[in-house]
């Protein structure tokens, strides 16, 4: 096995011949508005689960759609590989983020549209398109060879975008059934166009809602202003204590658990062809900002952060209204790095908010979700096979990269199943995940199918 390995002809031909159908089916998948955050779309989320289950059944998987207290989880199994073959678990999510603001979409979010080799739709890259390319790769093996070289479990959930609560419980309860020798996930971007990437880390997350109350109701700001607490001001004061002037998080103890990154990981990150001006331009920012003393890649990948995701209070309509609002609310989240635990960050954050809340303010902190950070050493047969498969499909030597995003289930899969986890994503940083005009590159969609199809051959050889 070496860098001259090619995608096998039989699989290549099948994938090329069946591409139109694969895309038409992906369009159907993308048309389902499976927005996990919105209760009124719960039926659509279920519909997407059933749609996926049906597609997997058609390629001879044994499929179960498991109901949970949240959205359903799809477990599909194909266990007829030759004796001694390894078992791989493919994880993905079929839920999507809300599409708003709708008026910023060039074509409607749930009407998939092709323009210039780009497929636009909510979920195109995150994660329906990437999940679907796995199904296509599996379909190729089954159609062409009537078998797969490895046993496969597909685990697809509908709550990733809201914290993965149900699937975390489900893997704990089904640890034996989900036992696998390798876990493969495609739900991340490549470092740059044309550059296949294996990820060495994910950040964790701790997400809070902070509600500040002052008075029983809104008050005339002339009658009462100056004599009562203003909750908007109180919340602003709290928010202003979160960072110091160096851009560091100013919550006592916040950095205590940080594990230094290894020399090897730092070296792979340093070797990446990072284009800071392009990053800045993609962000639409005049200048970049962040924690003093760190590079942009360090700030987004291996340093923890605190962000205000939203803040609201009082009168925000047109014109002027003189009022002291009765309450104020902020959504505040932390991105975490090893070994920060969301529960510990919750404890530190609650304590800090209590300490700096002005007298008279009633402050309520609610944790909405949390996920642990994750880091891996990309050595061993799984990563070697991935390098070969990606190299063959993309005709380029893969890099080791990282990302600042979170996939909450990853650390749980590692804990419960104990198998190495390969994050081999086919997105691009510019594909507008979570934003209007989300898209996936058709070229990456195609190459991704081929990389996955070849990976299963290589893992079978590895045994
Ligand atoms: N696919 C993303 C994870 C991701 C995003 C990886 C960006 C790399 C770069 C995933 O669907 C996601 O959006 N995760 C959420 C976490 C969640 C708990 C809402 C995130 O990172 O905000
Ligand atoms: Mn995702
Ligand atoms: Mn996402």
Structural commentary:
This protein has 463 residues and is of the alpha+beta class. It is built from 13 helices and 19 strands. Strands 1-2-6-3-7-18 form a 6-stranded mixed sheet, sandwiched between helices. Strands 12-14-10-15 form a 4-stranded antiparallel sheet, covered by helices on one side. α4 (128-145) packs across α13. The longest helix has 21 residues, at 442-462. The protein binds ligand BES and manganese (II) ion (2 copies). One manganese (II) ion (MN) binds at residues 93, 126-127, 160, 187.
Low-confidence stretches: none
- Strand elements, count: 19
Give the distinct bound molecules. ligand BES, manganese (II) ion
Largest sheet: 6 strands, mixed
| Share in β-strands | 15-25%
Overall geometric form: globular
Q: How much is the radius of gyration in Å?
A: 24 Å
Strand order of the largest sheet: 1-2-6-3-7-18
Q: Give average pLDDT, whole number.
A: 97
Give the N-terminus to C-terminus distance in angstroms. 14 Å
Total DSSP helices: 13
Fraction of residues in helix? 25-40%
Structural class: alpha+beta
């Amino acid at each position: 096995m070496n860098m001259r390995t090619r995608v096998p002809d039989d699989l290549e031909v099948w994938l090329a011949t069946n591409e139109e159908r694969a895309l038409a089916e992906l369009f159907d998948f993308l048309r389902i508005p499976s927005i996990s955050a919105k209760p009124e779309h719960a039926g659509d989320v279920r519909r997407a689960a059933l749609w996926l289950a049906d597609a997997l059944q058609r390629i001879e998987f044994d499929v179960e759609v498991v109901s949970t207290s949240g959205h359903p989880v799809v477990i599909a199994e194909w266990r007829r590989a030759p004796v001694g073959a390894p078992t791989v678990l493919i994880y993905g999510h079929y839920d999507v983020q809300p599409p708003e603001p709708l008026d910023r979409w060039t074509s409607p979010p749930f009407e998939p549209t092709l323009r210039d080799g780009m497929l636009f739709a909510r979920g195109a890259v995150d994660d329906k398109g990437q999940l679907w390319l796995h199904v296509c790769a599996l379909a190729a093996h089954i159609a062409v060879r009537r078998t797969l070289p490895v046993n496969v479990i597909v685990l697809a959930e509908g709550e990733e975008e809201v914290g993965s609560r149900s699937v975390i419980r489900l893997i704990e309860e089904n640890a034996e059934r989900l036992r696998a020798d390798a876990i493969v996930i495609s739900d991340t971007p490549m470092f740059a166009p044309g550059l296949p990437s294996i990820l060495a880390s994910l950040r964790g997350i701790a997400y809070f809602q902070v509600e500040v109350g002052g008075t029983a109701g809104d008050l005339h700001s002339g009658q009462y202003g100056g004599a009562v607490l203003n909750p908007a001001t109180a919340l602003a004061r709290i928010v202003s204590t979160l960072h110091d002037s160096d851009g560091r998080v100013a919550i006592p103890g916040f950095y205590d658990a940080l594990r230094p990154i290894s020399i090897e990981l730092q070296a792979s990150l340093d070797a990446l062809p990072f284009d800071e001006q392009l990053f800045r331009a993609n962000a639409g920012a005049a200048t970049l900002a962040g924690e003093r003393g760190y590079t942009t890649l360090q700030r987004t990948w291996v340093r923890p952060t605190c962000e205000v995701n939203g803040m609201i209070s009082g009168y925000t309509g047109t014109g002027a209204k003189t009022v002291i609002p009765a309450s104020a609310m902020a959504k505040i989240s932390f991105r975490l790095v090893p070994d920060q635990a969301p529960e510990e960050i919750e404890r530190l954050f609650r304590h800090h908010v209590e300490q700096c809340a002005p007298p008279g303010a009633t402050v309520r902190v609610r944790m909405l979700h949390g996920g642990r950070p994750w880091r891996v050493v990309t050595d061993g047969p799984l990563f070697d096979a991935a390098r070969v498969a990606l190299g063959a499909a993309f005709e380029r030597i893969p890099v080791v990269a990282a990302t600042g995003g979170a996939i909450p289930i990853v650390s749980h899969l590692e804990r419960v199943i104990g198998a190495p986890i390969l994050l081999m994503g086919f997105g691009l940083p510019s594909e507008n995940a979570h934003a209007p005009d989300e898209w996936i590159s058709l070229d990456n969609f195609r190459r991704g199918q081929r990389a996955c199809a070849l990976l299963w051959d290589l893992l079978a050889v590895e045994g």
